[in-house]
Structure formats: structure tokens, C-alpha cells
Amino acid sequence: MDCEAFRAVLPAEFQRRFLIKRVRADGRSFLTYRQPRICSNTLANCCGSASVRAGNNYYLAGVRCEVGRAAARECSGGIRHSLKSFISGELGNDSLESGERCNVAPTGRIVATVEFPKICGAEFTDAGGPAVNAPLLISGAITDVLNSSFVFDSSQLRLRGADTRERGSRDDDGITDEENGAHSSSENEHTEAQLGREFAWHLNVHIVCLEYDGNPLDFALLAAVAALENTVLPGVCWDRTAKWWKQLPPEGNTSSATITETSGSLVTFGARKLFLSSRPISVTFSNVMSQWWVVDPSREEENLGTWLSMVFMKNKWHVLRLGGTPVGASVIKMLQVKAGAIASGADAALSEAVQNNFH
Question: Where is the Exoribonuclease phosphorolytic domain (predicted)?
């Protein structure tokens, strides 16, 4: 039988004949990771962008910044329901809940969206195909990781100049709280009033897969992190007449983060760079046919087994597993040791891309 026909008709048997010889069908060993090549600022119309190529995978990420009403961050849900912390061989659900700081002050948010167009393969073309839920699951996982206080201080997204100036403007016009009935002794109503006066940046990280060969979480997250690391929030000014923010032209942007009064009706924020508290690095393993653990699974390998991702944040490993059979703590500890060197390689690739961006 022709090799490609055998591969298409009997994929499990094709892979098994390689795996029993301790080698993979693409020539890699079980613990060989496809080294990513990262390029920063690949899209001129984005506030930050990056591309990641690893093997036959190619991802492109762009960051779009929008000013909107600040929203209080919820203390429940999100990353704590999808990730488990694993430290020194102990696996538990409550590590993130106790370790992650909950910032209830109104601020902005990062929203990641991962898109797999039809050019990525037939499984993404069929609305009822096996990968129909993959973009939603991966987008949610990346959004949770990026909004973790371990990774990003969301206070960087606040715009605080408008609320004080707008209150002063209302006082000058003779509008008082008693006339409007805006304030109440109720704490909830006070929170609503604060939300109505504060603004924040909201970051939309759009990730597009142009070539797909397995392991989407690792490389999509890597592209998002690389794009955020070279993101610069544009300069904006508050127009009392329009009662909204206007983006300053590029030549009007400054590197200062302080508030300056440019005229009687404008409050200006200069352009400023974003900073990540730590780089989240994901390393994914697949238990192919429930017999062999391989790192960085290809498209064929991930279809033949369940996968487990380990995300390194703030010097801690967090385990992400969606479905599949239970994995023992001893197995996870073994995979964690192997993932350490791989995460160091991905972190070095990010550092090189950032360094090249400033040259």
C-alpha cells in the first residue's frame, strides 16, 4: 500500500509503527519541541503585533486598544476553574484562589480571540466537525491566563483623568448631586456611580492561525504574549464637548504617562508601553493511544490521544486539561521536569524577539 494512503486510512497503526521504535512520524524524539521563531511588530495598523512560526504552524497576533467604561473585576470564575496549580508534586484546585490577588477596582480587560480559518484544514471547515469547539476553548483559556494577576497588572489600563475633570465641569455648571439624585448611601449605588465616571483601556488580542499542525494552545498563547510585550497604548485626550476620548495623532503621542492640561477643554494621556508581570509559557503533552507521552503533539498525534498543558506563571506550574482520562500526580511531576527546559527555550525566543524589536 502507498505510504500516504496507509497514513490516511490507518492513522493509528501508521503512528504506532514509529512510536514502538521510540521515534515519531515527523522524525522527532518524544521530547523534541519545535522551536518557535518569533517576529515582533509585523502589523503596522495594530498597537502591538507578532508572528510565531514553529514547524508547520504559523500564527499571527494583533492587539487593538479601545477606550471604554471600566468594569469591576469579578473574584470568581475565570482561570481558577480551568487551571490547577502544581507545585513540588502536589496538585490542588485552591492554589490560584488563595494566591491570585483579586482586583475589584474598576479597570479594563484583555480579551483574546483565536481564529482558525478554513485554510487550516477540513476539521475547521465543517460546522459539526471535531474541532468546532477548539477556537472557543482556546480563546477562553488564553483570556483567563492573560487576565491573571500573576501575568498582568490591570491597573495599567485605567484612565483616571476624566472622572475628576468631569466632576469639576458639572460643579461649574451648577449641577449638584442633590439635583440629579445620583448619589445614595447604598454602597452598591456608590459603585455604580464610580463605574459611570471611570474609563479604561480594553485590549482585544486577535490571533489568526494561517498554518496548522497541532498544539494550538502553546503557539497561540506565545503569539499573544509576544504581541502584548511590544504593545503601546496610544495617546488620547478627553474632550468635554464630545464627552469621550479622542486618539491623538502619532506625532502628538508622548512617552509620558502623566496627565497634562493642553487646553481648557482637553485632558491628555500620553502614549505608554504595557508591561507583563511574568511571561506565561505553555508546554503541551499528548498521551498518544494512552501509551506514549509526547511533547508538542502534531495534528495527527493530538487526534490519537488526550492532551495536557502546563502553563508556567510567576514561578509556578499550572495544569490545564480539558477532558480525557485522569492523570496522576506522579505523571504530572515527571512531565513538569521535562517541561522546564522547554519553557526556558520559549522564553529565550521571546527575549530575542523583544531585543530585536528595539534595534
Answer: 33-234
pLDDT of res. 283: 95
DSSP 235: P
Rounded percentage of the chain residues whose pLDDT exceeds 70: 72
Strands 232-233, 110-115: pairing is unpaired
Question: Which H or E run includes 144?
Answer: helix 134-146
Q: Is 65 helix (H, G, I), strand (E, B) or coil?
A: strand
CA 352 to centroid of chain Cα atoms: 20
Is the per-residue pLDDT at 170 higher than 70? no
244-247: strand order across its sheet = 244-247, 236-239, 266-269, 259-263
The answer to whether 109 and 147 have CB atoms below 8 angstroms apart is yes
Cell of 308: 495536557
DSSP string, 67-118: EEE-EEPPSSSTHHHHEEEEETTEEESSHHHHHS----SEE--EEEEEE--G
Residue 203: closest CA among 284, 116, 273: 273
Query: Position 10: which residue type?
Result: L
Distance CA(116)–CA(299), nearest Å, equals 14
Report d(CA 151, CA 302) in Å as an integer.
Answer: 28
Confidence of residue 357 (pLDDT cuts 50, 70, 90): confident
Q: Tell me the three cell numbers of residue 80.
A: 481558577
- Alpha helices (H) along 198-230: 216-229
The single residue listed with the C-alpha cell 477606550 is 67
Identity of the residue numbered 85:
S
CA angle 314, 225, 295 (to 5 degrees): 75
Higher pLDDT, 40 or 180: 40
Distance CA 223, CA 303 (A): 23
Q: Comparing C-alpha atoms, which of 191, 123, 193 is closest to residue 163?
A: 193
Q: What are the counts of helices (DSSP H) followed by strands (DSSP E) for the chain?
A: 11, 20
Distance, in Å, from the CA atom of 225 to the CA atom of 333, rounded to the nearest integer, reads: 26
In degrees rounded to 5, what are phi and psi of residue 198? Answer: -105, 145
> pLDDT (tens digit, 9 = 90+) per residue, 307-325?
899 999 888 888 887 566 7
